[in-house]
Amino acid sequence: MFKRILIASRGEIAMRIIRCCREMGIETVLAVSEEDKSSMPANFATRSVCIGPAEASKSYLNKQAILDAAKAYKCDAVHPGYGFLSENADFAGMCEEDGVIFIGPSSDIIRKMGDKQSARELMKKKRVPTVPGSDGELSSPEEAEKIAEKVGYPVLLKASAGGGGRGMRIVTEKSEMKRAFDEAYAEAQAAFGNGALYLEKLIINPRHIEVQIMGDSHGNIVHLGERDCSMQRRNQKLIEETPARSLTPSQRKAIHEAALKAAKAVGYYSAGTVEFVVDQKGNFYFIEMNTRIQVEHCITEMVTGIDLMREQIRIAAGKELSFKQSEIRIRGHAIECRINAEDPEAGFTPSPGDISFLHLPGGFGVRCENALHTGGRVSPYYDSMIAKVIVHAPGRMKAIKKMRAALEEMTVEGIKTNLNFLYLIMFSPGFITGSYNTSFLKKHGDLILKWDKESRRKIKKDEE
Ligand code: ADP
Ligand code: ADP
Ligand code: MG
User: Looking at 55, 82, 103, which one is the last position of a domain?
Assistant: First the structure.
């Protein structure tokens, strides 16, 4: 097993990695920016090393500085968490060349799956269903118009290098194409350093269903069930749950099998997720594979009882998967809420600042993943997701009630958060019945924000 791991990430996922390594008897070296020198993970890692200034491009995305730190501190491996360099094939390749193990799949696998448009082409070849759209990269708005004409409007322009819900544009008719194309291209170029676009038919009111995959370097590969991540705001996940209530047993089986087929197509190993959109008739289509540990991996851990982080580290060290497909059992229901430092009353603008008071919820079946404490600081330089509240209960309604209680208990002072918004969603009929899709918050978000105690009390009463 590894003796020492360099962590090339920050925030709650850095804490998750540190805790896991402590359990496994592995030392941790946390690469931090100047901004994060006194963060909670910097205090809990065995040691930390500054790799550059606050701007991510000069620190958390500085491949050479991170690799140099890993070598200088004699780390056997690098854990990239999620975001930043976690899906960067060049960085994984640099690690391979320098004999530092990248905790994830090989650079070759990341290259095949990381570019969304080429992954899509590969899936078509392997007969995994994809959304109708372009074959490969779009060369011009005119080409996009031709394809859109064929598959039918509305369509979605998507960035090949996209992530985190960015670099996407809906186009409802031909006259909008040129402008949307130029905007999406510029946005992708600025955000990902790569403006390449492709096009998919816009699936109306779909669900986002994804399948957790885990494979080892000995050819074993399994799935750990699915997650429903349809509660989104601007194509960014906000609440996730497992199992997905909307799937029939045969749909569930089919989507698990498609995900395994997708992963096997590239000889996948490590933790990974195959993402699908499911239309209102129940047809599912591959959208992308995330070749890393995901934000919402914890809900799968709760229902399977398997520590995915530990497994991911073991696999990187060359060990075999510690369980077989037949040994995986899904027990009960789990829900995750992403707590963001943002102001719902001001259009969800980021709300960084000092935390004057923080209280995290606890109790049976309640789990918090977080990297903050009273007196800590939410930096304006990075993602606004600051914590996750995860609950696990024997059934879905019990899990919803547990989540309400947990969110009620949680207190964050000094900055604005979406806590109350999440709490209100836990009372919305669309969430309670499980009938929501990815358009839910666009349609009902504003109304939910305006809810008062009276309407909540009424729903609570109806449930009794
Ligand atoms: P998940 O698929 O794990 O739910 P998200 O899409 O919510 O992940 O992204 C997790 C984090 O990684 C967010 O902070 C997001 O901004 C960031 N992220 C995801 N993909 C990319 C990317 N390609 N480039 C930069 N940041 C990304
Ligand atoms: P990212 O890399 O940003 O995670 P994805 O391709 O996974 O991008 O898409 C993010 C979200 O956008 C999906 O979860 C879904 O809600 C929406 N989306 C993506 N493709 C389509 C599509 N063809 N039709 C409808 N919605 C889509
Ligand atoms: Mg995605």
Answer: 103
- Please work out whether the CB of residue 82 comes within 6 Å of at least one atom of ligand 1: yes
Which listed ligand is nearest to 82 at the C-alpha?
1
- At residue 454 the predicted structure's pLDDT band, cuts being 50, 70 and 90, is confident
| Residue 236 and residue 154 share a domain | no
Which residue CA neighbors atom 20 of ligand 1 most closely? Answer: 163
- Closest residue to atom 22 of ligand 1, CA basis: 163
Could you tell me the CATH number of the domain that includes residue 350? Answer: 3.30.470.20
The per-residue pLDDT for range 69-128, each reduced to its tens digit, is 999 999 999 999 999 999 999 999 999 999 999 999 999 999 999 899 999 999 999 999
Model confidence at 457, in pLDDT bands (50, 70, 90)? confident
Cα(126) to ligand 2 centroid in Å equals 21
Cβ contacts of 118 within 8 Å, gap of 6 or more: 112, 136, 160
- Residues 156 and 286 both lie in one domain: no
| Domain count across the chain | 3
Cβ contacts of residue 423 below 8 Å, gap of 6+? 404, 407, 408
Place of tokens 């031709």: 146
Query: Are the beta carbons of 463 and 433 closer than 8 angstroms?
Result: no
Nearest protein CA to atom 26 of ligand 1, as residue: 83
- CA–centroid distance, 83 to ligand 1, in Å, is 5
Same domain (yes/no): 249, 358: yes
Provide the domain limits for residue 90. 4-103
User: What are the catalytic residues?
Assistant: 292
Mutation test residue for ligand 1: of 82, 168, 235, 275, the one with most atoms within 8 Å of CB: 82
CB atoms within 10 A of CB 235: 15
